[in-house]
């Protein structure tokens, strides 16, 4: 499987306004899809918005044979991530949906990678305490950095976790040498995750 995996998730909206995990996909360093399951909503919670216009998702998906209970998905993904480098885009969202933690030093979040934030002054020192990092959408990063060198299967305007996980791994691999060089030399390359995901009971990073 290798030492790095790419994680992508989808969510739906519950009657209390909470976001519920609806699908989770994981690809390994070789781009193999090693996990892809829909997630059943808890029986006591009503889903009021399946975000059908945004997602490649039908309500039936969450109750079919390819759906598992939340606890199963949570434990399965925890096992897959343990001891591995975690690649993703806005990883704090996925970790929050799964309610799991991962070592911050072992994450490579494309949404926080400073060279992917063109609005920042690259001649200035990295801004390590940005309260609201500039988040470039994954689709824009994919188009900007991969379209000219890869035949991209992910052109569907609707969000699709297996495709997102592949795009994330390709983006990381394109930047990997420079990124890991800086990490090895102690040169900051990323803004921190948003504060609300790093403090107290809502801290999703170890």
From TrEMBL:
Keyword presence, Nuclease: yes
Keywords: Exonuclease, Hydrolase, Nuclease
Alphabetical list of InterPro entries matching this protein: REXO1/3/4-like (IPR047021), RNaseH-like_sf (IPR012337), RNaseH_sf (IPR036397)
Sample GO molecular function, one term: exonuclease activity
Any single GO CC term annotated in Swiss-Prot or TrEMBL for this entry: nucleus
Superkingdom assignment: Eukaryota
Name the UniProt record assigns to this protein: Exonuclease domain-containing protein
Organism: Calocera viscosa (strain TUFC12733)
């Amino acid at each position: 499987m290798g030492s790095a995996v790419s994680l992508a998730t989808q969510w739906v909206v519950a009657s209390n306004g909470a976001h519920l995990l609806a699908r989770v996909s994981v690809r390994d360093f070789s781009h193999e899809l090693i996990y892809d399951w829909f997630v059943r909503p808890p029986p006591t919670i009503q889903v009021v918005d399946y975000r059908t216009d945004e997602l490649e998702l039908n309500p039936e998906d969450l109750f079919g044979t390819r759906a598992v209970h939340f606890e199963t998905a949570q434990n399965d993904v925890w096992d897959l991530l343990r001891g591995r480098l975690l690649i993703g885009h806005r990883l704090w969202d996925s970790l929050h949906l799964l309610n799991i933690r991962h070592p911050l030093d072992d994450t490579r979040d494309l949404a926080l990678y400073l060279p992917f934030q063109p609005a920042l002054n690259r001649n200035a020192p990295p801004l390590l305490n940005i309260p609201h990092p500039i988040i470039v959408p994954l689709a824009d990063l994919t188009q900007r950095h991969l379209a000219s060198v890869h035949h991209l299967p992910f052109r569907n305007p609707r969000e699709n976790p297996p495709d997102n996980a592949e795009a994330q791994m390709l983006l990381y691999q394109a930047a990997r040498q420079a990124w890991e060089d800086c990490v090895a030399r102690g040169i900051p390359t990323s803004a921190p995750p948003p504060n609300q995901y790093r403090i107290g009971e809502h801290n999703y990073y170890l």
